[in-house]
Amino acid sequence: MALFNNNFRSGWALFFRNGLIITFLGLFALATIFPIYFMIISSFGDPVEAGAMSYSIFPSKISFESYKFFFNFNQYTYNWLLNSLIVAGCITVSNVLFATLAGYAFAKMNFKGKNVLFAILLGSMMIPGQVTQVPLYILMVNIFELKNTYEALIMPSIVTVYNIFLVKQFMSSIPKEIIEAAKIEGCSQPKIFYYIILPLSKTVMAVLAILTFMAAWNDFFWPFLVTQTMDMQTIQVGLKNFRFANTTYFAPMMAGATISAVPMFILFFSLQKYFLEGVTVGAVKG
Amino acid sequence: MSQTLTRKKKLKVESDSGWGYAFIAVALIAFALFTAYPVINAFIISLQDYRPLGSTFVGLENFKESFTDGLFWKALKNTGVYTLLTVPFNIFLSFLVAILILPFKKKTQTVFKAIYYLPAVASGVALAVVWLWIFDPLKSGIANQIVMFFGLENQNWLGSSATAMFSLVLMSWLSSHGTAIIIYLAALLGIDNSYYEAAEIDGASFLQKLWFIVIPFLKPTTLFLLVTGIIGSFQVFQNAYLMTGGGPDHATTMVGLLIFNNAFTYFEFGEAAAQSLMLAAVIGIVSFIQFKFLGKDIEY
Asked: By CA distance, what is B52's nearest residue in A?
């Protein structure tokens, strides 16, 4: 027994109902993935000017000329991908490390001011990004003079409050008896963290790593603000500049968009479980 | 006995504290430097005519200017319209889809979840580039081919102030429901079957079960999605920036975009900071009202 009644008098009625539902879900699914499908299919077209071509929903041929066109656009296209990888990689590693440490401390350790500090962190999540954007830009560019460096791209995201919150939520479910038993045995906190907490927290670390990597890879505005030269841009910024330099070349633009999106698709389909799990953490009780 | 216990407890508290601060040190430094300091600075900058070399204190001039500037109100209105058109509809759609996925096997559920979540994985810039071409104003554009199939005239989607906002809304309807569907489905699976069984014994119909069991149970989830959705929507401007640039005739200028332009196109940091604080205030008030009227039974 559930929300849906599956005890129809005839099998046909069940079949008919499920068929209707599947049709609706399928049509909606088609509408959802159509832009992505369109992007990938169109990227295999020849790099001719848009005015001279018509869009087709089914590929007439598969050519990689547009990809070549995109990579030959300038000598920095490979740099864009590499920069994205470096920046997203560093941000991911530092977030996993520092958010796990801080999340554990906030969940399981006793020290003065813990609750006040955590409340301040939580409260700061309500502040819209626009408020910190301008002062952060002034701090990084005018005061630290880090414009156009990896430091400027990485440092502001070194550990996010959201990730600390995520880890803390997860760690709260670890029974404190384990930690107390280890303490009685004379285990110090770093040892407890390394030998007991980390092995128990692999799932949350994986979720955190994936979501952080995706956010950093897809980030556009911050890299756009703090990079100046083409060789320091990330793929998202590069793609935007490519678009404005070549507004008429349709297929190469789709190739560029595909290149910027496909690494995340591969990551998503190979680690789907963690992605989908990550979405619900912090949103659903229990 | 109890005294020694408390002393022991105290000792333990003290033994944790050194490591406790060490564990949160980096997080705290990062927070102080990249969140707390900028927030405080935003207040200071908002009272200044900011120049890299020597700013002048102007009091509330930046706030006054924004208040009398028609564009700020228009941007606020655009943001409100966009939020009203996207957030409730996206939540309704996600709820509907999550309910409809429910009767199927876990494998089918996962396939649908993955498909609906896919646009959230793609980069925003890539999606914006694709949708730009879908909204191609020429007759050969995909969106135009579709409306012409239904006998309508072809539209200048992003180029006309009548349809530009709707185009952005349409894009949101079709690409930002994945997260909500997954969250709803997880909440739906958390409802114990015994409730449905009890309802069935009383002869409840599908709609009655939906109304008396599912909707009350999902209220905290709905509130969560509503609050986070509205907070997010008030800050949205990436698509407007990349696809319309706020035009035509400021028909798609959102507050987020206005702040961005003031700061990084015109380098009016003071005015941008003032407007960002007003945006924060609006978001705070709207969130507060929602909590006040829609219930307090939600935990973050």
From this structure: A142
Structural domain of residue B179, as residue ranges? 61-294
Note whether A128 contacts B273, CB cutoff 8 Å: no
List every span in chain A annotated with CATH 1.10.3720.10: 76-245
Q: Is the pLDDT of residue A11 over 90?
A: no
Chain length of chain B: 300
* pLDDT one-digit tens code per residue, B238-268: 888 988 888 788 889 999 999 999 999 989 8
We report the CATH number of the domain holding residue B231 as 1.10.3720.10
pTM for the predicted model, two decimal places:
0.89
Are A25 and B142 a contacting pair at CB < 8 A?
no
Q: Return the residue of A nearest to B29 by Cα.
A: A159
Q: Do residues B24 and B142 both lie within one domain?
A: no
- What pLDDT is stored for residue B4 in this prediction? 52
Residue B179 covered by a domain: yes
Question: Are B214 and A3 a contacting pair at CB < 8 A?
Answer: yes
Q: A residues 186-225 near B, CB within 8 Å?
A: 188-190, 193, 214, 217-218, 220-221, 225
Residue B13: the pLDDT is: 45
Measured between alpha carbons, how far is B140 from B257 in angstroms, rounded to an integer?
A: 30
Query: Is pLDDT of A284 > 60?
Result: no
Exposure class string for B1-17: b at 16+ Cβ within 10 A, else e: eeeeeeeeeeeeeebbb
What number is the average pLDDT over the span A173-192?
89
Whether B93 has a pLDDT exceeding 80, the answer reads: yes
- Between CA A219 and CA A224, with CA A220 as vertex, the angle to 5 degrees is 135
Residues of chain A contacting B178 with CB distance shorter than 8 Å: 32, 279
CATH architecture of A76-245: Orthogonal Bundle (1.10)
Q: How far is CA B185 from CA A201, A269, B12, B99, in A?
A: 25, 20, 43, 7
What residues of chain A, 105 to 124, have a C-beta less than 8 Å from chain B?
A: 105-106, 109-112, 114, 117, 121-122, 124
- Distance of alpha carbon A130 from alpha carbon B43, whole angstroms: 13
- When divided into structural domains, chain B yields a total of 2
Q: Which residue of chain A is at minimal alpha-carbon distance from B224?
A: A283
